[in-house]
Design brief:
The protein is an alpha/beta fold and 326 residues long. Helices cover 35% and strands 20% of the residues. It contains ten helices and eleven strands. Strands 1-11-10-7-6-4-5-3-2 form a nine-stranded mixed beta sheet, sandwiched between helices. It comes from Mesorhizobium onobrychidis. One of its GO terms (molecular function) is hydrolase activity. This is Dienelactone hydrolase family protein. Keywords: Hydrolase, Signal.
Length: 326
């Protein structure tokens, strides 16, 4: 089912949401492929130790840390009764990993699987009721993990960045634009292999046109994405792996219940439509009117509308938060 919701209607949904108590946040650690992962576990204020809850792994945009948009959505989900885990991927934030600030789809997919396995060990969590909530670029990692990991029972994506080779060319300036980015990445990779030292560029900037994200909001705004926990650097050697990563190929292999919340004015809606068309399992789509990619990260109205939709989806597919589980 595909539903289009105007911003005015989204406001009504958001304002109609109940007031929730603040969740508790517990710092946690677990292992992924020999490295320590550091995370934050958001626990509903009304946790009953006798009733294990459905739980969610919540992941954010590329090059981000757990305190950015992932934290916002994890808190929203905990407000609605779910246990929610955010974490820093290997090489990012507080987590281990020798190669820093390097956007590697394969590593991040494996870390999502490790996070799901960790959640299953928690006494607060019903191990058969774990879902995944992906935002922006990590949406591709989440659906790829879910397509091969049956422990992820349900999936929701918010403002998903989902691309394949065709969408990559449409997004990055055609074959020539892609080739230029690959050349930049290959040069950085060659230097790393030769010297063992990484070369970094700004992840985001309003003035430095070398930045991976040039003249973008959120990351360049104090109080939004520009926070002390976030290191504003990226290893450009990631480009080839990122551009070759195909998230859309996971669609026909994804059989879990699925929800997508997006907007036609957010990032690469053509990729989202292409992925949605390729799904063969149960699916729902909610398209908000006139909501930008960065609005989805932290603006009250779209965040609440997306969170309400995700909570309804996960309640329907994982069971309500108040039900006892194994």
């Amino acid at each position: 089912m595909l539903k289009i919701l105007t911003l005015a209607a989204a406001t009504a949904v958001a304002l109609g949401s109940s007031a929730f108590a603040a969740p508790r946040v517990e710092r946690v650690t677990f292992a992924s492929h020999g490295e320590q992962i550091v995370g934050d576990l958001y626990l509903p204020e009304d946790m009953d130790p006798a009733k294990a809850r459905p739980a969610l792994v919540v992941t954010g945009a590329w090059m981000t840390v757990k305190e950015q948009m992932a934290a916002r959505y994890a808190r929203e989900m905990a407000d609605r009764g779910f246990v929610a885990l955010t974490f820093d991927f290997r090489g990012w934030g507080e987590s281990g990993g020798a190669r820093r600030q390097y956007e590697d789809p394969g590593t991040k997919i494996a870390d999502i699987e490790a996070a799901v396995a960790y959640l299953a060990t928690r006494p607060e969590v019903s191990k058969d009721r774990i879902g995944g909530l992906g935002i922006c670029a990590s949406s591709g990692y989440m659906v790829t993990a879910a397509a091969k990991d049956a422990a992820i029972k349900s999936v929701a994506l918010v403002a998903p960045w989902l691309h394949d080779a065709e969408v990559v060319e449409q997004t990055y300036g055609g074959k020539d634009g892609v080739a230029q980015l690959e050349a930049v990445g290959d040069a950085a990779e060659a230097a790393y292999r030769s010297t063992g030292k990484q070369v970094f560029l700004p992840a985001a900037s309003l003035t430095d046109d070398r930045a991976i994200m040039f003249k973008v909001p959120y990351y360049t705004e104090p109080g939004r994405g520009m926070i002390p926990a976030w290191r504003n650097e990226a290893d450009p050697a990631f480009w080839r792996g990122w551009l070759m990563f195909d998230a859309i190929q996971a669609a026909p292999r994804l059989h879990q219940p699925f929800l997508m919340v997006h907007s036609e004015v957010a990032a690469i809606p053509q990729g989202a439509h292409k992925f949605y068309a390729g799904l063969t399992g149960p699916k729902q789509g909610l398209w908000l009117d006139n909501v930008t990619q960065f609005d989805f990260y932290d603006r009250a109205t779209p965040v609440k509308a997306a969170s309400d939709a995700a909570a309804a989806h996960f309640s329907a597919t994982l069971g309500s938060a108040g039900e006892a589980g194994q």
